[in-house]
Every structure is written in structure tokens, then in C-alpha cells.
Amino acid sequence: MIRKEIENLLYESAKKQNIQGEFCVSFSSLPNICDFQCNSCFAIAKKLGTNPLDLANLIVSKINNLNNHFNFSVAKPGFINISLSKSGIEHMAKTLNNISLDIAHGKKVFLDYGGPNIGKAMHIGHMRSFNIGEAFKRLYKKLGYEVICDIFLGDWGMPMGLIMAMLEKEGTLIDYISCKKTLTLEVMNIAYPKASLLKGQDEKFKQRAEELTLAFQKKQQPYYDFWKKLREVSVCEIKRVCKLLNVDFDLWNGESDANQYIPTVLKIFEEKGLSRISEGALVVDVAEKGEQIPILKKSPDEIQRYENPMPPLMLQKSNGGDMYATSDLATIYYRNKNFKPDILHYFTDVRQNQRFVQIFRACKKAGISPQEQLLWHTGFGTVNGKDGKALKTRDGNNMRLNDLLNVLYEKAEQKLVENGVIYDQDLKRKIGNAALKFADLANSAEKDYNFDIDRVLSFEGKTGPYIQYTACRIKSILSKAPKFEENYSFTNDYQKNVLLALNRMSASYKICFESKSLNDLCASLYDVASAFSSLYNACHILSEQDKNLQSAHLTLIKLVLKFIEDGCYILGIEVPEKM
Question: Of 376, 377, 333, nearest to 352 (Cα)?
Fold first, then answer.
């Protein structure tokens, strides 16, 4: 809002000189010289055929008469530098305390994230989907959107057929169906990897798994009832992990819920002449004329290569079995029929980018998605250990999500013991989660990154626990402080630097929304915490004898706490009372 205010002042001054142009104000890259800067005179001067330095001087010559919050100056060869005056600092503080970030204008967004498959242990990739999706759910709400979120379980495909086939091969399927044996998550976690490996070695086993998949999809007994058992056991575990991660959903639907709409969707494609038979399978063409798909380069210096044009989207296998894409199309049909969102936003592994391009194009072609509806997909990269390789457990196996959480909570407990902090199970969970979420979200969403468990749990540096610790320190100060009235008479550079950090943080929400990544908010939160730390180390607060200055300090740190708690909430980080 402050930058917009400065832009309006520049625009009004230029208008009085009969100069037309758009002005863009940014935070200063040289804070020792100014607080904000504007480089717009270069583009405007080029259009007018004039000198940018003369143009900047002309605009600034009149602007200081229009306000008393900002000081404008010009630097060669045409930069406009803006610094806050004493009244401007107070004005900015009051503005930040009452800022509105509503940009939704009554729009509704439907979020699809999480997406774990039932019958399989959740892996590290699910961590990213949960963290990014949950943070965007909260960000959308902060920006004024009506939000609906769905975990959309993978519960209607081949993995369940593979588990059934393996249990059948081992002679135990009938025991689990008849309840002579109790079906557990561990039974599924053992059966699925074995079945997944065997299907690539034994064609008959693969065919049997496909038959069983088709059987429960057609609701044939006893396989359909056993599928429901698989789902129930899996969902119970998924909900447990979501609760640990401070993640929740409005809907717990899955591919199975879209099943009833598949015939309708297939009929739409058929009636519009969009589907065709290819080698016995039902497909829809989604390639655009002359299209080439770039192959992801392994290094920046590698020559760019391309795949063939976008392949058709398969709707049904030759045996009549449904595809994941068929469920996705039916799900979009269902969501539009029942919720009519303005935006559908998906969060999955970046390797699914092409599949979502195919699905979105098919939806637009068939009219399943209205032309004005926005269909977005945020693809995220993978998480590796600090050595750049897959995260491993102590016994050398690939780390599951539950394993990672246990390690984080265990190390958080060690950290608390070392620091002599009295703790409970909930505190170590909050600290472990903060380490996990901040490290995850501080990286650009689409990029791979390395996860160093010891570093991310540090109470110092750019980490989640450091942000939590800063908030706890402020809470402690405020709990010991005398009663005070709000005082926005900020007089020193430490106070101003805190306010500028808060200003940048308020701007980061829209940046995150536009970039579809939370890293800018994480960076801003760290800058706020660092600016507070500098103020805390340089200025007396509780021991300050000047009551006017003390009340200004307390007013400011109360605002800092509000911003940190708001930012942490968006990231899904819980701020404890003490640590």
C-alpha cells in the first residue's frame, strides 16, 4: 500500500506536467541511500524522446509539495530515490497495522493437494504436496478467496489390484476378506512393493492384478468390499499424519468418488467427436498444431532437445479399465457441477506437468471446464538428503514420510534437552514441523533441494525454529512489559528498518500468489526476525527509562509479533508460548 501511494504521487505529479506514463516503485537495493526507488523514467523518457534525468527532475520538482511523508530526490542517469520522513515512518506503521490484502473480489478457488495412494506408505513427495498445498489454502483465504480443499486420494487404480494379487498369490487374501486375519497398514506396506516388483517380471501376475483392479472398479464382490477395507485402514493412517503436520481438508474424496461421473464424461467426448479408438484404447487428441515439447535439460549448457508432439490423452485401456486421467476429468466435471469454482489449482510432482496440460486441454475442448475458469497446476521438485541423494533411514532404506517425522521430532527433543527447556510431546512436534515446513517452503516450489536435518532444526539462522524462537522472545518481553498506549513515534534507524521489513513482508503475499511459490514469504519472515533481533540487541526495551521511547518500542514489537504469527500461520507453522 505504501508503494502504491508513492506511485500515485509520481503519477499525479507527472500528470500536472502533461506527462503520461506508468510508475513502478520497488524496495531499495541500496538502503543506506534510500528506502524505495523508481526506475520508470527511463521507459517513459524513451517513449517521449527526452532525457530521463531531465524528466525525473521535472517530476520531482513538484512532488514534494504534494506530501509530507516521503522525500524524493534524483540520481543520475534518471533514478528517483524515495526516503521516509519522520511522519512517513509513523504513517507507514499505522498503515501496516490496518492493511487489507483482499484481491479476490468474491472469487472461489478449489484446491487439490496431498493425493496419497491408499495401500502405500506415504513418501517424502507427499510432504511437499501437503506443505505447499496447505500454505496456499491459507494464503488464498488471507487474500480474500472462498476456498474448498480436497485431498483427492488415489484409491481407484492399479496399486489396490496389485496388493490383492500379491495376497492372493501368498494364499492370504481369502483370510483377510473373511476377517480371519486383521488387515493392517503394515500388511499393505509389505505386499505392495513385492507386487510392484513382480509385475515387471511376471506377465501373468500383472494380468491378474489388472483383472482384480477391474473387478473392484466394477464393484464385483468380494473384491469391492475388500477394497473398502483397504481404503479405511489407509485413510486412518493418512489422517493421523495430517494431524501431526497441522494439515486439514474440507473433503476426503478420491478417484472412487469420480467413478459415477466417468460414463457422463466419456459420453461428452463421444458426442462432440473428440474421442477415438487407438490400438483398442479410447483416446482424445490434445496436441496443438506445430507443437513441440522441450525435454528437461540436465544442465544449463546442454542443447535443448524436443519430444514428439503432445501425445493423446488415454481415457480407457483396451480392456475397458479406467485411467487416472479419466478420473481427473470426471473429478473436474463433478467439482464444476457441485461447486462452480473460478479457479481449480492442483499441486503435484513436477513430473506430472505434461499430464495436467493434457487434462486441462481436454477439459476446455469438451466444455467440462468453462473457458473463463482458470486451471492451474503447481509442480514441485524432489527432496534429497544433504549429500544430494535420496533421504535414507539408519538401515539404508529410502525414508518414508513417517520415518522423517519421527527423526525430526527425536532431534527436536534432543535440542530442547540441550537448551534446558521444559517440553512436552506437542512442543517437540511443533518445532520439528517448523523445521520441516520452513525448509521445504523456503525453496522455490518447482526446484529440487537438499534437506539437512541438523541445519534446519537450528535455533539460529534462516530456519523455522529461529522464527518460532523470535516470536517467543517477543511474547516474553510483552508479558513482562508495563501497560502502554500505542505510540507510533518511531525515531531511530532500527525501528525504521523493522518497519521496512514488515512492509516487504506485506508485499510478499501477493508475490507468492503470483509466483505460485512460498519462498518470498519465508525470506521476508526471516528479514523481519533479523530486523527485530538488531533492534533488540541495540536498544533497551524493558529497561528503557524514557517512557515515550519504551512505548514506541513495545508498540513496534507487538506489530512484529502479529506479522510473524500471521506469516507462520500461512506456512502452517505453530508458534508455541515458550521454547
Answer: 377
Question: Diameter of the chain by CA atoms?
Answer: 88
User: What is the pLDDT, as a whole number, of residue 421?
Assistant: 86
Q: Which amino acid, 175?
A: D
Mean pLDDT of 188-200: 94
Q: How far apart are CA 356 and CA 365, in angstroms?
A: 14
pLDDT on residue 317: 83
Under the banding of pLDDT at 50, 70 and 90, the label for residue 558 is very high
449 shares its domain with 538: yes
Chain-centroid distance, C-alpha 14:
40
Mean pLDDT across the chain, nearest whole number? Answer: 92
Q: Do 178 and 73 lie in a common domain?
A: no
- φ, ψ for residue 390, nearest 5 deg: -55, 140
Check which CATH number belongs to the domain holding 550 and give it.
1.10.730.10
Strands of 373-419, DSSP E = 374-380, 383-385
- CA neighbor of 62 nearest in space, from 17, 112, 118, 4: 17
Contacts of 14 (CB under 8 A, 6+ apart): 20, 21, 23, 44, 59
Residue 368 contacts residue 265 (beta carbons within 8 Å): yes
Q: Are residues 65 and 162 in the same domain?
A: no
CA–CA separation, 169 and 172 (whole Å) = 8
Domain range for 498 is 401-571
Domain final residue pick, 194, 218, 244? 244
Q: What is the average per-residue pLDDT within 159-185?
A: 95
The residue from 244, 269, 301 where one domain ends is 244
Grid cell for residue 309: 508432439
Grid cell for residue 105? 473480489
Alpha helices in 146-300 (DSSP H): 158-169, 173-177, 185-199, 203-217, 223-244, 255-258, 262-271
pLDDT of residue 396: 62
- For the cut 90, the answer to whether the pLDDT of residue 302 exceeds it is no
More confident residue, 370 or 124: 370
Percent of the residues in the chain that have a pLDDT greater than 70, as a whole number: 97
Q: How many domains in the chain? A: 3
Look at residue 405 in the predicted model and tell me its pLDDT: 95
Of 138, 140, 238, whose CA–CA distance to 573 is shortest? Answer: 138
Structure-block grid coordinates of residue 303: 542443447
Q: Which three cell numbers stand for residue 163?
A: 496388493
472-519 pLDDT, tens digit per residue, is 999 999 999 999 999 999 989 999 999 999 999 999 999 999 999 999
- CA nearest 133: which of 113, 154, 153? 113
**Same domain as 188, residue 64:** no
C-alpha cell read off for 293: 515439447
Q: How far apart are CA 491 and CA 535, in angstroms?
A: 12
Residue 308 exposed, middle or buried by CB count within 10 Å (0-12, 13-18, 19+): exposed
Is residue 17 domain-resident? yes
Q: Residue 27 pairs with which residues in a beta bridge?
A: 36
Question: Residues 6 or more apart from 267 whose CB is under 8 A from it?
Answer: none
The pTM of the full predicted model, rounded to 2 decimals, is: 0.90
> How big is the chain, counted in residues?
579
Note the helical H segments in 516-546. 519-538
Is 311 a member of any domain? no
| Closest to 332 measured CA to CA, from 262, 383, 426 | 262
Alpha helices in 245-344 (DSSP H): 255-258, 262-271, 324-338
For position 319, what pLDDT does the model report?
73
Comparing CA positions, the residue from 217, 123, 220, 234 lying closest to residue 183 is 234
